[in-house]
Amino acid sequence: MQRTWTPRVATALAVLAAAAFIYVTAEIMPVGALPAIARDLHVSEAVVGTLLASYALVAAVATMPLVRWTAAWPRRRTLLWTLACLSVSQLISALAPSFEVLAVGRVLCALTHGLMWSVIAPIGVRLVPPSHAGRATMAVYVGTGLALVVGSPLTAAMSELWGWRLAVGAITVASVVVLVAARFALPVMTMTDAVDGVRPRPIGHHRNRPLVVLSVLTLVGVTAHFISYTFIVVILRDVVGVHGAHLAWLLAAYGVAGLTGMAVLARPGDRRPKTAVLGCLAGSSLAFAVLATLGYLSWHTVAVAAVGAVAIVGWGATANAMPPMLQAAAMRHSPEDPDGASGLYVACFQVGIMAGSLTGGLLYQHAGVPAMLSASAGLMLAALACVMISRGLFAVRPATSEK
Question: Which residues cross the membrane (predicted)?
Fold first, then answer.
């Protein structure tokens, strides 16, 4: 029976988007609260920046084993388990007396982060007809955009006004609310093989050449993005020249641009994904190049602030519209096991976050912000060139799903 966009499906997709929102808000919370955490725990800003790298490392290592271990679980149970881990981890982080305990709390969240992203998009795809797979994935990723529009600026503002612990406490409460909503709004989604009493046989995704190439290119692009994004507050302050409360507004504009980009590219992402991804890569490359130029010029004028703000918005629009299209493409390359394909994609995404945040930290400490932005521009251009000459990476084929 063909599934349609019923109110029940829309509600389920909204809950999935809420789960994405709360997970991404928790993941990137140190970006906006970086100065506040550094002051409170008496460590440097660069050390706080390693929270993203360590988080991504744990997520990258844990994703594929957990995807295989939970392969026979109903999809709802898997998602609820990840949300429960998120709630506990945020409680530990909010009460952390030291940087080390904070890092441990984030490890628990990171352990299930990749698993959550491995199942959340496939759950969304299974709720709709195959022809709407890209749009369902994009709907789930709206949560990511909202995390950038609302979550990150809000936690940054709360951290500055009332302390970062209150911000993490708010994330804890929100994650429990989403956990309860997911329990009642989502179908069980028992896996077909599990119903038949057969444990799903692992599929060799490492031998799926298009999927591997797509995942590696994702790694390169994500590395380029996070080299600079890890220190976006520093870029806004030192390059664009925005200070104080205006930082939160520009961070929100970055997120709004990301949401707008996802909405504009929802349909093209289903019909002409390669063209859409190429446009995003070109836009991000240009934004990084402009910001790097402003950084080297080191001019602090109203005109520079305006140009920098436009570049930040362009960066947000293009960088945040890409992940749903890339994950949808990954699942199309393995219609018989979209969760496993999604897991490989997510693992490479997390490696990119780790590599980007570590590289960004080293460049920030030893070469400066302009060099950091230049590295992002160079890597993004390399990804653009590879996608441009590729064949078959974004072929649109109908995807199947478990009922």
Answer: 46-67, 79-97, 103-125, 137-156, 162-182, 211-235, 247-265, 277-297, 303-322, 343-365, 371-394
Nearest to 28 by CA among 315, 230, 165: 230
Q: Say if pTM beats, i.e. exceeds, 0.70.
A: yes
**Does the residue 403 lie in any domain?**
no
What is the distance, to the nearest Å, from the Cα of residue 368 to the centroid of all Cα atoms in its chain? 25
User: CATH no. for residue 276?
Assistant: 1.20.1250.20
Per-residue pLDDT of the chain (403 residues; tens, 9 = 90+): 345 668 888 899 999 999 999 998 998 888 778 888 888 998 887 788 788 778 888 888 888 888 888 888 888 999 999 999 999 999 999 999 999 999 999 988 888 888 888 888 888 888 887 767 777 888 888 888 788 778 888 888 888 888 899 999 999 999 999 999 999 999 888 765 544 445 555 555 567 788 899 999 999 999 999 999 988 988 998 999 887 667 778 888 888 898 899 888 878 877 888 999 999 999 999 999 999 999 999 888 889 999 999 999 999 999 988 988 888 888 888 777 777 788 888 888 888 988 998 899 899 989 999 999 999 999 999 999 999 998 888 876 544 333 3
Range of the domain at 167: 7-190+206-389
* Contact criterion met (CB below 8 Å) for 359 and 230: no
The residue among 21, 14, 12, 20 whose CA lies nearest residue 187 is 12
CA distances from 69 to 11, 63, 267 (A): 29, 10, 34
Nearest-angstrom CA–CA distance, 398 and 403: 15
SS (H, E, C) 309-336: HHHHHHHHHHHHHHHHHHHHHHHHCCCC
Query: Cβ-count burial of 180 within 10 angstroms (0-12 exposed, 13-18 middle, 19+ buried)?
Result: exposed
Q: Provide the 3-class DSSP secondary structure of residue 377.
A: helix
> φ and ψ at 292, to 5 degrees?
-65, -40
Tally of domains in the chain: 1
Q: Which of 313, 319, 110 is nearest to 224 (CA)?
A: 319
Query: What's the rounded Cα separation, in Å, for the pair 147 and 29?
Result: 10
